[in-house]
Design brief:
The chain is an alpha/beta fold. Helix content is about 45%, strand content about 15%. Strand 7, helix 10 and strand 8 form a beta-alpha-beta unit. It binds erythose-4-phosphate.
């Protein structure tokens, strides 16, 4: 049975340029990269400096983030490098936008990551109006993805939406259904939003994304290395994704909703508890690095 030709762009999900270099040399080229505050906090150079007793100031943290994405930028293709703004639950759109404007000037191929919240989408809307490319992260519902579509409609470049598969699976819901539902909903749209499947934890999830033909996937090096070790297989027509948890128990399906994309972005339900938890985790990881450093 013939295998599918890969149309999906591959991004490395990480915060270490060495990993990107390694994957790129193994598969020929990497299309892009996503970073986030948790991944940057794990960067080996940051960890080494913390271990040697260095105390990072907020400004130094920002400089380190900039250095890391500047190292990665020339290693990747046209899917660019996604850089995440620092946002807690009270950060305003204007505060996010100010960071986004600065970060967008760091490298020529930046995408600015904003959280999928009311303030995050307000920042994204203002960003695309001034030509800043965006990636809306921490998306856990079809309604949030509809909000992304409506808020970024004036974008000249493709806007990315990042639905998180693994974190839905973690609580027993089939994250792959969310990807399918968003793709189906976007079929009625103008194509300006590209699905960037995120929070990929297994080879099976990666193959399922290839089978669905999602525009982009962001993948941790561990999963990419497993795919490479198997000879970079592609799913054939018999491929079936088994949505099961670690114990082999079927995940709960996420049902498709009929949503009209042509409504104002503010009319969509943008709330999701996993988005809130995700923001809190990124803040904790980011501040954890500073605290570790300060108490070292
Ligand atoms: C990428 O943009 C996401 O931040 C990342 O895929 C999240 O993955 P995780 O759920 O494994 O932390």
């Amino acid at each position: 049975m013939a295998s599918k030709i890969r149309t999906t762009k591959i991004l490395v999900d990480g915060g270490d340029p060495e990993e990107t270099r390694r994957i790129s040399s193994l598969i020929g080229c990497v299309d892009g990269q996503t970073t986030n505050p948790s991944l940057v906090a794990k960067n080996p150079e940051i960890q080494r400096r913390i271990a040697s007793g260095h105390k990072f100031s907020l400004e130094e943290q920002n400089d380190e983030y900039k250095r890391i994405v500047q190292d990665i930028s020339p290693l990747v293709g046209d899917a660019g490098v996604s850089i995440e703004v620092f946002a807690d639950l009270s950060t305003t759109a204007e505060q996010m936008l100010a960071q986004g404007e600065d970060m967008f000037s760091w490298i020529p191929n930046a995408y600015i990551k904003y959280p999928c919240t009311y303030e995050g989408l307000r920042a994204a809307k203002m960003s695309v109006e001034q030509g800043i490319r965006v990636n809306i992260t921490l998306c856990f519902s079809q309604s949030q993805a509809a909000g992304v579509y409506a808020a970024t409609q004036s974008s000249k470049a493709p806007a990315y939406v990042s639905p998180f598969i693994g974190r839905l699976d973690d609580r027993g819901e089939n994250g792959m259904d969310l990807i399918k539902n968003i793709q189906r909903m976007y079929k009625d749209g103008d194509g300006h939003v590209h699905v960037l499947a995120a929070s990929i934890r297994s080879l099976d999830q990666l193959l399922a994304c290839f089978a669905l033909g999602v525009e982009l996937v962001t993948v941790p090096t561990k999963v990419l290395e497993a795919w490479i070790a198997k000879g970079q297989p592609m799913p054939d027509q018999n491929f079936v994704y088994r949505g099961v948890d670690a114990a082999g128990k079927p995940l709960k399906p996420i049902l498709y909703e009929e949503i009209n994309l042509n409504k104002p972005w503010t009319s969509f339900n943008l709330r999701h508890d996993l988005t809130t938890k995700g923001i809190q985790k990124f803040v904790a990881d980011f501040e954890g690095t500073l605290q570790q450093a300060q108490s070292a």
